[in-house]
């Protein structure tokens, strides 16, 4: 049975950009599971699976609906144990929890600063007022002013990624010789930026960028199949 994934989009349904939905997509592909994406905009989320969650991703797997990318990964690991592991055991789950918190604390705030105005410009007419009002209330300033500060913070952001950079300088993936869910957590953050904005977060000779390009090519180029923002 095909799994359904509610996937965040803006005006263009062919440009899914949510970092958390990308985590779920990569996890589904890693497990080799057939899935179909259901393009979902912000103001549609309240109707997803009878209001199961205030955010996406949400999946429908048979008679079960699951919200939250990490919960989805745990569900897939438990429901399909005969397929490639996302964690490699309990230690891998604990490691992935750390990577998720590190990514959300270290990467997401600056990426939000860098791309929030670009994401605003991706929204359809119905979602534009919602996105501006909700994000400006959260960030405390106009979206244009938020993104105007990105150049000043870029150097510090790149420096903050040194633990990731150092790790990837001696192994191809966070999971070791092959990717695990921890890789897809970080990949989701960078894919969010790649699809949403032409702003360059990384130098092209950065080991992180090399790793990211490897991840883009996984599963028949699942990530690369969505074009980068121009």
From TrEMBL:
<dbReference type="InterPro" id="IPR036249">
    <property type="entry name" value="Thioredoxin-like_sf"/>
</dbReference>
<dbReference type="InterPro" id="IPR036282">
    <property type="entry name" value="Glutathione-S-Trfase_C_sf"/>
</dbReference>
<dbReference type="InterPro" id="IPR004045">
    <property type="entry name" value="Glutathione_S-Trfase_N"/>
</dbReference>
<dbReference type="Pfam" id="PF13417">
    <property type="entry name" value="GST_N_3"/>
</dbReference>
<dbReference type="Pfam" id="PF22041">
    <property type="entry name" value="GST_C_7"/>
</dbReference>
<protein>
    <submittedName>
        <fullName>Beta-aryl ether-cleaving protein</fullName>
    </submittedName>
</protein>
<feature type="domain" description="GST N-terminal">
    <location>
        <begin position="8"/>
        <end position="84"/>
    </location>
</feature>
<dbReference type="InterPro" id="IPR054416">
    <property type="entry name" value="GST_UstS-like_C"/>
</dbReference>
């Amino acid at each position: 049975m095909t799994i359904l994934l509610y996937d965040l989009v803006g005006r263009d349904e062919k440009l899914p950009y949510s970092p958390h939905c990308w985590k779920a997509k990569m996890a589904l592909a890693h497990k080799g599971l057939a899935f179909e994406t259901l393009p979902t905009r912000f103001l549609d989320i309240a109707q997803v699976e009878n209001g199961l969650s205030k955010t996406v991703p949400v999946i429908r797997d048979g008679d079960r609906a699951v919200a939250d990318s990490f919960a989805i990964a745990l569900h897939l690991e438990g429901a399909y144990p005969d397929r490639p592991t996302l964690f490699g055991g309990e230690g891998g789950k604990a490691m992935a929890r750390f990577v998720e918190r590190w990514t959300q604390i270290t990467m997401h705030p600056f990426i939000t600063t860098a791309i929030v105005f670009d994401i605003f410009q991706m929204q359809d007419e119905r979602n534009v007022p919602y996105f501006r009002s909700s994000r400006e209330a959260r960030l405390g300033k106009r979206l244009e002013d938020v993104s105007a500060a990105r150049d000043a913070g870029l150097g510090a952001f790149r420096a903050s990624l040194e633990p990731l950079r150092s790790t990837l300088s001696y192994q191809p993936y966070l999971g070791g010789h092959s990717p695990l869910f921890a890789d897809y957590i970080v990949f989701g953050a960078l894919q969010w930026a790649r699809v949403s904005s032409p702003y360059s977060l990384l130098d092209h000779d950065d080991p992180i960028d090399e790793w990211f390009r490897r991840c883009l090519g996984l599963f028949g180029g699942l990530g690369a199949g969505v074009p980068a923002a121009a």
